[in-house]
Amino acid sequence: MNTIRRSYALFRESLSILAKDKEILLFPLLSGIITIVAFASMVFAGVTSGMIREFGAGNRALGYAVLFVWYFVSWFIVLFFNVAVIHCANIRLHGGDPTLSDGFNAAMQHLGRIATWALVSATVGVILRIVAERSKLIGRIIAGLVGGAWSIATYFIVPVMIFERRTLRDSVAQSTSLIVKTWGESLTAAVGIGAFTALLALAGPILPIALFFVSPYAALVGVGVMIVYWIGLSVVTAALSGIFRTALYFYATEGRTPAGFSPDFVQHAFAQKVSSRLAFTAS
Question: Is 117:172 a contact under the CB 8 Å cutoff?
Answer without folding.
Answer: no
